Amino acid sequence: MRPSREPSVQAYVLLVRSAETLHSNVSRGLVAEGLTDSQFSAMVSLRLNGKLAQRDIAKYILKTGGSTTSMLDNLEKLGLVARDRDTEDRRIIYVSLTPKGVDLFDRIYPNQLLRIQEAMGDLTDAEYQQLIGLLQRITPEHKVSSDSDCEN
User: Fold this and answer.
1) 88-120 exposure pattern, b = at least 16 Cβ within 10 A, e = fewer
2) Angle at which helices 37-49 and 65-77 pack, to 10 degrees?
């Protein structure tokens, strides 16, 4: 069987391969800090929003509840986040960055932004806007509401 020459299939394959390559290159800097990309994404959501329910973090980082729990367990063991239960509804667990978590995030965040910018190359602003528009057309559920939504 020959690979499909259908443009939609070719675009999909290129998009997935490109995303995986970009993500791998950008995530290397996090590994050097002892963090996974999911842990960093959770820290981004907490730094931007303050204390969040654990389920909201799972939605933000596009992970299941179980994998989010495990990832937050590890962040808690590192002393980077703290969890506490809602006093009215014990099913809700809130997560916040600890001072150690804030310090680590603030130290590594600028370099993470630089890695993203370097990985994305040197497109013009118009080309970036065109790319964003095309990606939003094929995944409207991931519309970017602000620049900070994409910084992880």
Assistant:
1) eeeeebbbebeeebeebbeebbeebeebbeeee
2) 80
Q: Where are the domains of the chain?
A: 7-138
Residue 82 in contact with residue 76, Cβ under 8 Å?
yes
Model confidence, pTM: 0.82
Q: State the distance between the two ends of the chain, measured CA to CA, in whole angstroms.
A: 38
The per-residue pLDDT for range 28-81, each reduced to its tens digit, is 989 989 999 999 999 999 999 999 999 999 999 988 888 999 999 999 999 999
Residue where the block lists tokens 């490109």:
18
Q: CA geometry: angle at 72 spanning 70 and 76, to 5°? A: 120
User: Cα separation of 51 and 70, whole Å?
Assistant: 18
CATH number of 7-138: 1.10.10.10
Sheet holding 81-85, edge to edge: 52-53, 93-97, 81-85
Q: Which residues pair with 94 in a beta bridge?
A: 53, 84
Q: Which two tokens stand for residue 7?
A: 């443009």
